[in-house]
Design goal:
The protein has about 400 residues and is an alpha/beta fold. It has three domains: about 100 residues, Alpha-helical ferredoxin (Fumarate Reductase Iron-sulfur Protein, Chain B, domain 2, Orthogonal Bundle); about 190 residues, no CATH class; about 100 residues, Rossmann fold. It has 17 helices and eight strands. The protein has a four-stranded parallel β-sheet with strand order 2-1-3-4. Strands 6-5-7-8 form a four-stranded parallel β-sheet. The radius of gyration is 21 Å and the shape is globular. The chain binds iron/sulfur cluster (2 copies). One iron/sulfur cluster binds next to helix 2 and helix 4.
Amino acid sequence: MTESLLQKLEAEVGKCISCGFCESVCPTLSPSGYDLWKGARGRVLVAKELAKDLRSGSDGILHVSDSFYSCLDCYACLYVCPAGVNAGIVSHTSREIIASGMLPENENPVAKMIVSTTMKYLNPLGVREKASKWAEGLNFNDNSPDLLYTGNMFQLMPYTKSLNSLRNLMGRRMSKFMAGLVGKHPPLIGFISNRRDRDLDARMSQSLRNIVELLESSGLNVKYLGSNEPYPGTFIYDLGYADQFRIYAEKVTKILKDSGAKRIITIDPHTFDLLKNTYPKFVRDFDFEVVHYIDLIKDLDFGKSGEKVTFHEPCHLVLRECPYNSPMDLLRQTSEVILPARSGRKTRCCGGPNELLFPELSEKISEQRYGELRETGASRVVTACPICFTNLAKDEKTIEISDFLIEKLRK
Ligand code: SF4
Ligand code: SF4
């Protein structure tokens, strides 16, 4: 297993000619104060040294995990690299090597905490039951073959926002100590996840209810798992814990199968990408049809308002092997979309994936991105991901696509 990871890493970094083109698009480089280790080329060069050390059995292994954990997995670097290197894959493979236990001094306590709490509670913050509150009073159809799968993503945002404020109060060292403690004793997560940002909670709940209304308006009365709905395991996969992810994905698949669903309706880019492209590689009988809800509401009449809006395209929709951009297609039917200078395959990540491990860096990336979006002069900034929304909601001009579409539908 470790040998195959090492070979994969060597093959990817071996292509690099060190030209530095990737640095021009890497969203973590300038907000980190041009810390070269937190840029695409730096990650590849560090991984090259790491691979050499591992191959030679050197005991002077570098302490390099921040370089890899701070990578957003956005893949923007891939599309400018003349040698076809994906520094995102380099970072992910390096995280897998760290997670395999080969480099214990490089393990990150926050990453370990997230993995152990998710494995125990099927939710990274142990708030699975609370994550179903948004649906109170709604009528779902338990006999439907269509399952609305929120993956708890919208619901987690108010908790992660509060967690970051708490971390600012505690300071970095205390936070790492707490993370180490919770990693060993997952029930302690209750002490740090009992607070949520109430405004954001109300906003996210409304977005979820809007999605249900959009589906119902399209004639779809779906089923929903409520407090039994598990988180999809995105963090476990992204942090490189492949063995744990396989076990976790099998558990989630069993819950989805037991529901009797045939089609899984996802509502955020991370879950859509994970279920569509990664689950089938880890779970042999993952044979669901996986769709994004936007594809199911295309025939609704949202009218043509002519409003000038800008759209923050999510990395997991447009920077993957098979780009999928239905949210923007739909937006273009209703409004005039003015894209920022960095769009399409040059889109810039909102910084959200760094929110739990590198909150200060995440904040700086989001400010840079928000500035680019506002420079378009558009009246509003539309996002299509709860993580992007949370990171880019710098003022009232940012709106989640479900809220935007409901507003147009009701006019
Ligand atoms: S663009 Fe590609 S070849 Fe150039 S430094 Fe970056 S990874 Fe290496
Ligand atoms: S995947 Fe994104 S954050 Fe990571 S190295 Fe490439 S451009 Fe930078």
